[in-house]
Amino acid sequence: MALIVHKYGGTSMGSTERIRSVAQRVAKWRRAGHRMVVVPSAMSGETNRLLGLAKELMPHAAAPEAMRELDAVAATGEQVSVGLLALALQAEGVPAVSYAGWQVPIETDSAFMKARIRRIDEARVQADLAAGKVVIVTGFQGIDAEGNVTTLGRGGSDTSAVAMAAALEADECLIYTDVDGVYTTDPRIVPEARRLHTISFEEMLEMASLGSKVLQIRSVEFAGKYRVPLRVLSSFTPWDIALDEEAASGTLITFEEDEKMEQAIVAGIAFNRDEAKISVLGVPDRPGIAFQILGPVAEANIDVDVIIQNIANDGRTDFSFTVPRNEYLRAMDLLRSRVQPAIGAADVRGDPRICKVSIVGIGMKSHSGVAARMFRALSEEGINIQMITTSEIKTSVVLDEKYMELAVRALHRAFELDTPPRADA
Ligand code: ASP
Ligand code: MG
After folding, report:
1. Which of 38, 44, 39, 41 is nearest to 11 (CA)?
2. Average pLDDT over the chain, rounded to an integer
3. pLDDT at position 367 over 80
4. What are phi and psi of 59, to 5 degrees?
5. Is the predicted pLDDT of residue 93 greater than 50, yes or no?
6. Which atom of ligand 1 is found nearest the CA of 9?
7. Given the CA of residue 140, which atom of ligand 1 is nearest to it?
8. How much distance in Å is there from the Cα of 397 to the middle of ligand 1?
9. Buried b or exposed e, range 249-270, using 16+ CB within 10 angstroms
10. C-alpha–C-alpha distance, residues 43 and 290, integer Å
11. Which residues contact 285 (CB under 8 A, 6 or more apart)?
12. CA of 21 to the centre of ligand 1 (A)
């Protein structure tokens, strides 16, 4: 009999009716003989509502002591969920017990709003499982060494579930959500997008970091580190479908070694509009210049993504990079007021109206000409590429944001993602 972790997202927990359906589904798994741990999110919209209340009352500059209270407020959404789900299971005649993060405990560092899990003491959960109970543990929250309640960052319940699965050495972690798996791209943009039956862990990591919102990226990192078998599937199928059918649905995240099937070259297309482009022009071409530009940006805690430096011409070069769009004004200000005068750059220009579109696939490791095919598809649509970056398994381009949907559709077609590869059919 397997030890299984189920995670249910906010929409899956969105009403008492939905929670009852979750309880019926979990009860079905329990009755099949599995040991069950369930990690729910807050009911949909609840975390936003709680943080909204907190922001109405909090001081303007968020001091560390205010951050602590934000977490105290935000964590209550999941507290409600676990209790309700335990009651619903008990109503189904299934023994169940709920725990907040601190009761397990799930120990984290003290970075409020984005805490990292350090250790999970799984003894209490194991004891309940041995006693035949379904154990329900809050997603999203933990406790730091000083006993403060912490939260793991938005979408953090995915990470809670994977971390629980790792600590318990669970046989599988099932992430139930409102879509039925991971798609080749967002079906709202490309109606022909297909669900992937499997995706490799590396591809999933890229897709999550490049803008696919299905899983919190940290949960994928965690799954990779501890080799947690992970499946993304829908909680909106009828709860009483056959367990075998349910267990084989959705998208399985695999590790390369297990991969026997022939891979599509490109697994999926990710995109986001969360970045802005900045160019520092006429920079003297001398050692240390990249550091002089990006050092202050890093010090200001602004993440930098795509970076391009041109070949120098007459001892001067241009240096471009992207930053999160919500940090754009702060970054421009910093560069104009401090960096430009310090290094004697000619100008600093920026454009927040960009998008990043990426193709992702481990097949790119062993196939040449993939990037060229991408550039041809974009050129056939008359789309100008502003920046390019590559890694072993992805190529990303920065474009004018008005071309985002057109580019995603063109690439989806160019890599034949509209039709299933044979091994995947
Ligand atoms: N409730 C938290 C959020 O909305 C955590 C989660 O749902 O994963 O971000
Ligand atoms: Mg989520």
Report:
1. 44
2. 94
3. yes
4. -65, 160
5. yes
6. 7
7. 5
8. 30
9. bbbbbbeeeeeeeebbbbbbbb
10. 45
11. 312, 315, 316, 317
12. 20
The model's pTM is 0.88
Element containing residue 40 per DSSP (H, E): strand 35-40
Contacts of 108 (CB under 8 A, 6+ apart): 101, 115, 116, 117, 118, 142, 143, 144, 150, 152
Q: Is ligand 1 within 6 A of the CB of residue 79? A: no
Residue where the block lists tokens 């977490």: 71
**Res. 423 pLDDT band, cuts 50 70 90:** low
Domains observed in the chain: 3-256 (3.40.1160.10), 268-414 (3.30.2130.10)
Cβ-based neighbour number of residue 163 at 10 Å: 31
Asked if 271 contacts 404 with a C-beta cutoff of 8 angstroms, the reply is yes
- Higher-confidence residue of 275 and 260: namely 275
In degrees and rounded to multiples of 5, residue 397 shows phi and psi of -125, 145
Specify the ligand 1 atom closest to the Cα of 157: 8
Where residue 425 falls among pLDDT bands split at 50, 70, 90?
Answer: very low
Q: Which two tokens stand for residue 94?
A: 């299934």
Determine the distance separating the centroid of ligand 2 and the alpha carbon of 319, expressed in angstroms: 36
Distance CA 25, CA 6 (A): 10
- Expressed in angstroms and rounded, the spacing between residue 266 Cα and the centre of ligand 1 is 30
Contact 401, 368 (CB under 8 A): no
User: For residues 74 and 50, is the Cβ–Cβ distance under 8 A?
Assistant: yes
pLDDT (tens digit per residue) in 282-335: 999 989 999 999 999 999 989 999 999 988 888 999 999 999 999 999 999 999
Interatomic CA distance for residues 105 and 269, integer angstroms: 38
Q: Calculate the alpha carbon distances from 9 to 19, 109, 139, 215 in Å.
A: 11, 24, 9, 10
Name the nearest CA neighbour of 342 among 290, 308, 287, 293. 293
Q: What angle, 0 to 180 degrees and rounded to 10, lies between the N-to-C axes of helices 404-414 and 370-380?
A: 130
Residue the block writes with tokens 């017990």: 97
